[in-house]
Amino acid sequence: MLDHLPGARAGLDTSVRAARSAARVHPRAAAATWDVFRPFPLADGVADVVLDVFAPRNPAEFHRVLRRGGRLVVARPTARHLAQLPGVVGVDPAKENRLSRVLAGRFTPVTTEDVTYSLSLSREDASNLASMTPNARHGVPPGVTACEVTVSVLVTAYQAR
């Protein structure tokens, strides 16, 4: 994303590991961890893009920190996402309606893309991926083997109102 936005810098994350990784991948990347439900340590109207990938959302703070003309980009899994991994919890069918409802007062959807592809995983990669899913707090399920999974994500760009 930073390659397409020459003046941009990144960003906040709720995950220490994700922030650490993000800060290493690009010379203009900077990262800090932050609780998404607290006020962001940013001034009003300073962000060109807020990127929310598989994370909780704080529409009021997203709206507050976005510049006029800025975009909120939300990526979320579909029901097919990683469904081949044992123990993966399905996506709540009401998730899309909740997302629309929570963003409706502040954001208008501009475009949505369905990003879907197959991915072949070794046993180790499948186990690592299973450990990153929301149900991982119960431990990696037994029987994780090498497999092919479907990556299926909806990505929507929203314009602030």
Gist of the model:
This protein is an alpha/beta fold.
Helix content: 10-25%
Structural class: alpha/beta
For the secondary structure, the number of strands is 6
Query: Shape from CA axes?
Result: globular
Main β-sheet, in a few words? 4 strands, mixed
Query: How far do the termini sit from each other?
Result: 23 Å
Can you describe what's shown?
- The protein has 161 residues and is α/β, with parallel strands linked by helices.
- 21% of the residues lie in helices and 35% in strands.
- It has 4 helices and 6 strands, in the order E-H-E-E-H-E-H-E-H-E.
- A 4-stranded mixed sheet has the order 3-4-6-5. Strands 1-2 form a two-stranded parallel ribbon.
- The radius of gyration is 17 Å and the shape is globular.
- The model has no long low-confidence stretch (mean pLDDT 85).
Q: What descriptors fit this protein?
A:
6 strands, 21% helix, alpha/beta, two-stranded parallel ribbon, 161 residues, 35% strand
Strand-helix topology:
Elements: E1 10-13, H1 16-24, E2 29-33, E3 47-53, H2 59-65, E4 66-77, H3 95-103, E5 107-121, H4 123-131, E6 147-160
Parallel strand pairs: 1-2, 3-4
Antiparallel strand pairs: 4-6, 5-6
